[in-house]
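This section describes the prediction task in plain terms. A model, or a person checking by hand, is given the sequence of a single protein chain and must write out its three-dimensional structure as a string of tokens. No templates, partner chains or ligands are provided. The sample shown here is typical of the held-out split.
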Amino acid sequence: MRTALLVITLFLTVQLPAQRRVGFAYYDVDGLYDTLPSPFYDDSDYTPQGRLHWDNERYELRTAKVAAVIDSMSMPVVALFGVENEQVVRDIVSKCRGDYCYIHRTLNRLDGLDFALLYYGDVLFPQRVSTGYDYMLVEAAIAGRDYAILLTHRSRFTGEIIAELQHEQPDRFIIVAGDVYRLDYRRFPLAEATARAERAGRGNAMFRRGWTMADRIFVDKRLDADCDVYARRWLLDGKGAPAAVYNRNSYTGGYGRRLPIFCYMCEKTCF
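The expected answer:
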């Protein structure tokens, strides 16, 4: 990975061996809907006749912008939250320069938003995929080792899933990413990999009190990890906040209200 693609590489104090490190990113795309009304939930705002006047031109531009962010990060594994359906994922992947495979599952949320995992087929080898209330779990082989990647958006079952994964296969590496809801991660052999960036005052969402780490990455303690927020000037508005797609009901054409977070991981034995 070229240094120019990283956010602020001065924050990364440990140089991981490139041949054994794993690059992973998590990106909440802030509600990317297609333009078709759904019979299962109310997405009427995101239709051409809806309140937000969401038409095909805006949709095509938005999917292209998400693809541009993914290509800019140049990560072999990218988790997405906030995609409405598989067609949206396909449209994003088709616009990426990287040759990504993808996994998508419907979560049956009231807002219709799902998870997806984009990955290079020569890096990650999926073994099993399962979903539940506000989470998607991908069990896969990476670099010859077993991983469990748990993507969660405020799921209250996160702790139970981690405990079950540990019980089933203690040797497996666990990664947890997303908007984690009240996870007492100290109960598990996990480290909050995004904590250092947060302590330095960085975050991936802007609220009145300033930058907040709305999404987080937790990694197995047997991994060394360098994580940070992926912040590029073109992802921000004139005030230095993430450039929103809408300012209330007014279309501004930004990238979304949350910045991606990323992580490079390596087994501690690789040094």
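For orientation: The first helix runs from residue 56 to 73.
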